[in-house]
Amino acid sequence: MPTPSEMRLDVADAINEHGQRTRLRFYTGSYTGSYDDAETKISSGTTLWVNGLSFPAGQASTDAALLAQGLIVKDDRTLYLHGSVETNVRMEVMLGSPNGSIYQVLGDLGVREHGVSGTTVFNEVFIRHLPNGSFIGV
Q1: Using CA atoms, how far apart are residues 106 and 49, in angstroms rounded to an integer?
Q2: 27, 61, 113, 129: which has the fewest Cβ within 10 Å?
Q3: Of 7, 17, 24, nearest to 121 (Cα)?
Q4: Can you list the positions of beta strands (E) in 33-132?
Q5: pTM of the entire structure?
Q6: How would you class 116 by CB atoms within 10 Å of its CB: exposed for 0-12, middle for 13-18, buried for 19 or more?
């Protein structure tokens, strides 16, 4: 039986071998006043380049309910990242290097950590294409 560390290394090898360069740009958010005001995204200055595996969302059997509920749509993607990569819902994802397509993490789904015995083996991130580069709803 493999240890959590061995599983993490195996996943990292698969992502590095079959993945593509992916830029993660992190933002902080602030609200301008009351509860119904729009959120303002502010770049934290942190940009991270990693390898990631990207697939059309909805292909996993567990995604059927998300499609039925309208939480994901057929053009969304699922991004798999190594478990040691920092992720959050306030990040912009660019698939491809040096120029690629820009995506936003779906806030209602966010990031799912998959792990064994307290060790995160990989992160599953649902993302949506941003055709004009703006955040959804901003």
Answers
A1: 20
A2: 61
A3: 7
A4: 39-56, 77-82, 91-95, 101-105, 111-116, 119-129
A5: 0.83
A6: middle
Distance spanning both ends of the chain, measured CA to CA: 47
- Please tell me the least confidently modeled range out of 41-45, 79-83, 87-91: 41-45
CB 123, CB 80: distance < 8 Å? yes
**Joined tokens for residue 99:** 């120029």
Question: How far apart (Å, rounded) are the C-alpha atoms in residues 106 and 76?
Answer: 9
CA distance 81 to 93: 12
> In this structure, which amino acid lies at residue 41?
K
Q: How far is CA 49 from CA 81, 122, 128, in A?
A: 11, 16, 19
Would you say how long the chain is, in residues? 138
What is the token pair recorded at 43?
């770049």
Is the peptide bond preceding residue 98 cis, with omega within 30 degrees of 0? Answer: yes
